[in-house]
Write a structure and sequence with these properties.
The chain contains 15 helices and no strands. The protein is mainly alpha-helical and about 240 residues long. Helix 7 packs across helix 9. About 40% of the residues are buried.
């Protein structure tokens, strides 16, 4: 098992580029540990690496994913996200504890948060909607990344028109959250929901725009027609 980890890390280091590492840091306010490997290359390394573990049990693969998360390197977290998503057909209710641990213990930036939650957690929630209550627990967390995770987990289901009541419920919890990463997260969720429920989302924005942070509001209305955008942006 350690050989697999070592092989992945060797490939990441071999493909590291100082310029990529330097430019990537500009997208983050917090300090991020990364090798400096382009996303497409990380994807290839993850895909090729999974061939060596695909016959192992889910528990064994999740264990390898945890080792990647523990490293603190963003690219290794991307490998963990890729591998966990490849196991989605075998997700079971107990796996929420795994995702909960990763979100609360290892996620330290928006890229790792979104990569895990848009795909693995989102797929899990679609399979087991009763765990929407777990997202509401995250939304009330002191951990900014758990709060963002609660809403970015629903981006893909929202685009499909699912879970609108719960989407509004999460937005209610986070409505006046002072953290811009959380504001952008729930605004993005509302924008995704507007693809299938434009009038409902517009109505929600109009109802709450007096207290909704402008960052969240702008994200929420981004895909709406100009007339609706103008109406939503009016002050007073």
């Amino acid at each position: 098992m350690n050989t697999i980890i070592e092989t992945i890390r060797r490939e990441l280091k071999k493909n590291a580029d100082p310029k990529t590492r330097e430019s990537a840091q500009r997208f983050f306010k917090e300090s991020v540990n990364h090798y400096g490997v382009k996303s497409a290359v990380v994807g290839r390394i993850a895909r090729d690496g999974f061939k060596a573990v695909k016959d192992k049990t889910k528990a064994e693969i999740f264990g390898l994913c945890e080792t990647f998360w523990r490293s603190g390197y963003m690219e290794e977290s991307f490998v963990a996200c890729d591998w966990s998503y490849r196991l989605r057909a075998d997700f079971e209710p107990a796996d929420f504890k795994v995702f909960d641990k990763w979100v609360n213990k290892y996620v330290t930036n928006w890229a790792s948060c979104d990569t895990l939650c848009n795909h693995s957690v989102g797929a899990f929630i679609e399979m087991y909607p009763r765990f929407l209550r777990g997202l509401k627990v995250w939304a009330k967390s002191k951990n900014r990344w758990a709060r963002r995770a609660s809403v970015v987990s629903l981006i893909i289901p929202a685009r499909r028109g699912k879970f609108l009541k719960d989407i509004f419920g999460l937005a209610d919890i986070l409505l006046t959250d002072p953290d811009d990463m959380v504001q952008k997260g729930y605004g993005w969720m509302l924008k995704a929901a507007s693809e299938a429920h434009q009038q409902e989302v517009f109505g929600y924005v109009m109802k709450h725009k007096a207290v909704m942070p402008r960052t969240a509001l702008r994200y929420a209305i981004e895909k709406m027609p100009k007339a609706l955008k103008a109406e939503a942006m009016k002050l007073g």
